[in-house]
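Hi V.,

You were right to ask for the full record rather than a summary. Here it is.
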Amino acid sequence: MAQTHNRAAMVVEHADVVIRRAAPADISGVAALGIEALEKNGYEELVIDPAKVREMARLVVTGAGNYCLVAVRQGEVVGAVSALVVEQMFYERKVANVIQFYSREPGPGLALLRTFLRWVRGRPAIKSVMFCLEVHADPRVEKLLRLLGMKNEFPVMAKFY
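Predicted structure:
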């Protein structure tokens, strides 16, 4: 599977999938992918709000400083990585909080994450990347993140009401 890169436009071709920055026309596809991913998380006590998912997709695609990268096959969004970039609460510089990473098919995930991390490294204002895995996440995602140099830094504790 040959990959070709266009660094100026951040476009990566992976097999018959094009990986590129999301455009406003991709918002509905990013939102649909987000809802699909959330439906698989296994938290029965949480109810998905499709309007909030669509608003978050709009924010990461069109918001200044945020990031959304999509994998597109034949005009359909089949994968995405999205991050909200915000000031760190107590430290200098910013943090890129990954809020979505999902692919309907194997293959584009590695290219999505590599392209995202290349984008982060090119932004000196960003100090860190936070990527919280769902309890029921595919274990291959954690392996992939470790392969890319990420490590488990903070335990996250939660209680649902």
